[in-house]
Design a protein that fits this description.
Elements (H helix, E strand, L loop, with lengths): L2 E2 H4 L42 E11 L5 E14 L2 E5 L2 E6 L8 E5 L2 E8 L9 E10 L14 E13 L2 E10 L3 E2 L10 E12 L2 E10 L10 E12 L2 E12 L5 E8 L13 H7 L4 E2 L3 E2 L11
Antiparallel strand pairs: 1-18, 2-3, 2-16, 3-4, 3-5, 4-7, 5-6, 7-8, 8-9, 9-10, 10-12, 11-17, 12-13, 13-14, 14-15, 15-16
Length: 306
Amino acid sequence: MVMGVHDLFPMRLRRLRFLPVPLIVAGPLLAQDSSQVDHRPSMPSDASARVTAGVTSGAMDFADRRVLQGVTGVLRYRIISGVSIAASPTFARVAFPTTLGGGAVSGLTDLPVELSGDHAFDVPWSPTPGFSLGMSLPVGDKQAGFGTGGVGTSAGVGLSLSPLDGFSTHVGIGKSLNDYSLNSTLGASSAAWGDLDLSYELFDRVEATMGIDGDLAAQDTLGPARMVALSLATSLGGPYTLTVSGGHGVSGAAARWTFAIGFGTDFAGLQTLGSSSPIQRFMRSLGGQSHKGSLTTPGSGHGRAP
């Protein structure tokens, strides 16, 4: 049997945004003088770096026992203060259980490239609006389900607030503009998505973010795909940050469990970047997928979705 990409990834990956663009990406912190209270998390960030990079590796498990594993790199260039462009190549592998024919497929996914911008206002609660414009370059194997054979696009907006010192919240919405999703764990590619996250500085140099992310409306009979997730980030000294993230699908065709770990200079905290939140970037961290083409499992049979 031939398995459609929409069967393997029955939901969209909006841009993720916990995990490609990658797992946790931080924007520069708003500078304030000693007479002002900084309501944003105080984890150090490498705001002066023009170029940052990181790598994320993880896995997700689906209800029908399919397992997706991936490694994603990110390279970010800051054009001006608050505006950056990033590319996030991903190598993915999907393994099928014997009930779906067994075997596995692997390869590069289409290449996400995203332009992000945000600006923090020096007023109470530090409101920070942002935007993201994304596209995917067709470098993935369309027959394996890792590409569309064409250019994909997406757009999103978000707003972050910091009502208390060390505490912030983020809300965002977005939509893929054609048949490609930047989120491997959530949603049909044509669905609009939304996310709501809370971030808090637990200890010195340790921050946590928890939230819910998913489709705003159902695209199939399974209902809206939604996931709850938690991310921890700790500074290892200098510009380097280690992130550990996990998520659990609570409705629709979301991956049942997702786990990822990241390291690099592009993960300097849990603040938002453009329209994306830490949870959303976690969702993207294992690469996007197409809802076109077919995906066949090697070996004795072909995979089939539930």
